[in-house]
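Please go through this chain and its backbone structure tokens and walk me through the local backbone shapes. Keep your notes short.
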Amino acid sequence: MTFPADYYERVYAGVLGKMIGVYLGRPFEGWSYDQIMASFGEIKYYVNDRHDLPLRNHLLVVTDDDTSGTFTFLRALSDYNNSLDLTPAQIGQTWLNYIIENRTILWWGGLGNSTEHTAYLRLKDGILAPHSGSMALNSKVVAEQIGAQIFIDGWGLIAPGDPALAVDFARRAASVSHDGEAIYGAQVIAALVAQAFVEYDLDKLIDTAVAFIPHDSVTYRLIADLRAWHTANPNDWHEARTKLAAHYGYDKYGGNCHIIPNHGLVILSLLYSQGDFSKSQTIVNTCGWDTDCNAANVGCILGVRKGLSAFDGDPDWRGPIADRLYLPTADGGRAISDAVHETDFILESAYAMRDEKWTPPKNGARFHFSLPGSVQGFQLQDDNLVLDNTPHPTQPDQRVLTIHYSLNSNGKSALWTPTFIPPEAIDMPGYSLLASPTLYPGQTVRATLLSNSANLTPIKVGLVIQSYGEADQLITTYGPVMNLSPDKTSHLTWQMPDLGGEPIVHVGISISSDEPVQGMIHLDSLSWDGTPNVIFHRPVGSGRMWKRQWVNAADYFEDEFGEAFRVIQNRGCGLVISGTREWIDYSVQAEITPHLVKTFGLAARVQGQERYYALLLSDQKTIKLIKRLDGEIVLAEQTFVWQFGTPYKMRVEVQGNQIQAWVNGSILFTVEDSIRPLSGGGIALVCEEGRIGTNTVSVMPTP
């Protein structure tokens, strides 16, 4: 197939539309139409700053199952070689890899109450998808709740103009946890997203989507009724909502959040808004029920349909969110993200599925600002700066982040973007924000800056980071500074310093001047590379964020009993994880004490709970080097008698396809892994049924 010429921007618009809908609808999720009208009237804009909202609803950019599930489950593609033959069982395995039980992505409402929690427990018990989500196993009511629809948009984004492919992928993905009408609703949404790349007419879009589902289904009848009501009275969506509630309301279906009423609101808002993004968000959010889910589906469809112009005019939908996105999973280095970063990932998968290669702009820089209006989470230290996304001053086919500055004598200001959990999100209520930093000591940050030709005098620029310090106060550290003359380009480079075990929370650009000055500079790109050189330990005068840089996928992760890192797992295998997929060749080591444990060890190239290499001591008599990938694969093994209470210096080194392992300074294993090797990932402490502890974990480049 041929990708649309504007595919990149349209995917980005779809991602933004999804995010805007979630952030808009989240504060009053689950409210009724009457409650919303009484409290707010028609929803016209973000309400998170309303003082009459519960405290937990005041944050604008939040963790949410709609976004974290959508952009996480889509990773099944890249994890399984971007195969068009991806199976429901493989998508189910993706659930087990990324979801941390009772903590991330899902609503953990219990067996038989939360559809997704029920399906997760089936998967954990070894029941493969699609049986894991079937109504034969879980009952019709449980299987037909809304979850399949809310996670489905991404499968449409990878299939531009190919609704049949989107519908097929939607069936596979939805069947992990849902069945029946839930799958039909998900297929309609996926088809609408896919077809919106090539079809603007809403009626034709809906015609295309409903052709893929059974004509005797409730979903098909629901959509037909809504279209008939719209034809009869196209200007009164309030009347249509009343009819929808009367004929297809929550009282007609069991469970907590059935798909049929909410799917009805998605279609209703598309019809009665006539495709206008702002009006659609007003309708779908004012109508109530599962507001964030419904608004997100509508936002994605209409973002794709019209592209970035869908958000033009008032109100300003994009400014307050600044592309920011949190995706907490067991792959913690992907948690701090943004709309452009996820768009890049979607395009890489979409092209790879078709045996083509797509590389993000500017040689894959993490922050490249190549999409109109994108700021990728960058925010300002103060009012001395103003940000804007503009065409590159000398290469109009590219874009840059333009910084307008106005400084007094000896003035200094900065702009930065999060690399870890920012202060406002530390105690985020609702869905947990578990994350590892994206940037670590030892890595090298690189940025390219241009001074505008209209500037009259040079300006001083440099790189800057913020880290957590004593009592989790923010500490600002400035890198080398250089003069940037008018109409010149500077390349800034700075290797991240040791921070005493504290995590980096922001990275950005500092701007300063000895004299009053005004002008503009352009940030072309910012990225980093290299292997970390870092020792994880309890810092002096520490707060809690030094430990939060480890994603806790164990039962308990303690530090108040002497050891800095104490991992306890009651049943099965638990991990605590740090690092990112960009870590390739490195050495990790720790002196670990087994207190009472079945199996314990140290892992490298960790990509979640089910994808890693590990050196494990087991049953007090065995040592083995394993690969965890759709089950455990023993790469090497030998007898090794070990004792409780005795510390063991463990080291794992990964370089290319070679894995080496040491205990107490003696090399025990050297293995080449050539079958589906894991190419990169973070580190983890591994604990199976028991307790282990250590005070330091070190990561460094390989010799």
Remarks:
- The radius of gyration is 26 Å.
